[in-house]
Amino acid sequence: MSGTDMSVAAAQDTPDPAVGERSRRWRMVLGGGDADGTGHALTGRDAAMDAALGALYGGGGEGGPRRTSGAPRSAGLGGSAPNVARWLGDIRTYFPSSVVQVMQRDAIERLGLSALLLEPEMLEAVEPDVHLVGTLLSLNKAMPETTKETARAVVRKVVEQLEKRLATRTRATLTGALDRSARISRPRHRDIDWDRTIRANLKNYLPEYGTVVPERLIGYGRAAQSVKKEVILCIDQSGSMAASVVYASVFGAVLASMRSIATRLVVFDTAVVDLTDQLDDPVDVLFGTQLGGGTDINRALAYCQSKITRPADTVVVLISDLYEGGIRNEMLGRVAAMKGAGVEFVTLLALSDEGAPAYDREHAAALAALGAPAFACTPDLFPEVMAAALEKRPLPTP
User: Fold this and answer.
1) 3-state SS string for the chain
2) CB 3.0-4.6 Å disulfide test: which of 69, 161, 209, 247 passes with 34?
């Protein structure tokens, strides 16, 4: 055999790395078993990752259920706390935090592992996120005393992460909106906003003198630290609104920290609870909620309406999927009355990163007809929505 022939033969016998990588990936996707058709065996870290996935989603990984060819996948963490704790440690080892949070959520929903979260050692093993907080809040009443402190620590960690992410931008955005809303047209010299005055009078620039001659002065009110606006957050605490309750509580605490905004936080199901006096600590607010139960939006709005003393300076934010269990016509009548009195009324179908939720479309259309469009809002968009409401300009709906 010539040297060229030997080289060709050697090349034919050498596995193509690209083909091997494709087989590996398809094996991970298909989950193994006789039906996957890849013939690729996993070893080492790949085998451990496959086992962790198989335990939750099926597919024959070690620690998960074996399935025969053509059989549907099934999940198999079992009801054992030690097995679940070990699995939680595995997925944190092999997957990034964002993936871990998704897998934890799937494990709770698919395998009914909520009860295991009542054990302190389990809570210490999980990756905290908004959805886990929602689950813990729904279990609050069933939580033993031995678990409550650990649960509060988990919730506080998530709340601090959210505050760090959202607070600075929210304060800056709303402070600007409040300053603009307090602008006056005949300010004293020390109250003139020179930047905005110059911008508003650029058409009066005199090139021969190199200056602007202002026809209109723009300034701020003198009582910069006084309460300028009142905000009422009215939050539906039905089970489907868990993530919204978490974000709204954090934003409520941020708003309450601003001297120029008087903030009230009200949560409701079929009853109404005013948690305003706990706004200095959003963790206390969250543990003051009770996720689940029915919904009576009309009763909640009646309470909020009774607390409005300065309609023209008040923003009411209703956060609800609008599935009303109370009196529909009265609910709509209250919204119309508040808007007629000068209240800015904002309806958020959700305050979360989860996209458009299920909601009552008939009620949403009725609110839109009253000039209160209902839309889902992400936490990152919320400061802009509030700024627009404070300035009484069109809301930046998605």
Assistant:
1) CCHHHHHHHHHHHCCCHHHHHHHHHHHHHHCCCCCCCCCCCCCHHHHHHHHHHHHHHCCCCCCCCCCCCCCCCCCCCCCCHHHHHHHHHHHHHHCCHHHHHHHHHHHHHHHCCHHHHHCHHHHHHCCCCHHHHHHHHHCHHHCCHHHHHHHHHHHHHHHHHHHHHHHHHHHHHHHHHHHHHCEECCCCHHHECHHHHHHHCHHHEECCCCEECCCCCCEECCCCCCCCEEEEEEEECCHHHHHHHHHHHHHHHHHHCCCCEEEEEEEECCCEEECHHHCCCHHHHHHCCCCCCCCCHHHHHHHHHHCCCCHHHEEEEEECCCCCCCCHHHHHHHHHHHHHCCCEEEEEEEECCCCCCCCCHHHHHHHHHCCCCEEEECCCCHHHHHHHHHCCCCCCCC
2) 69
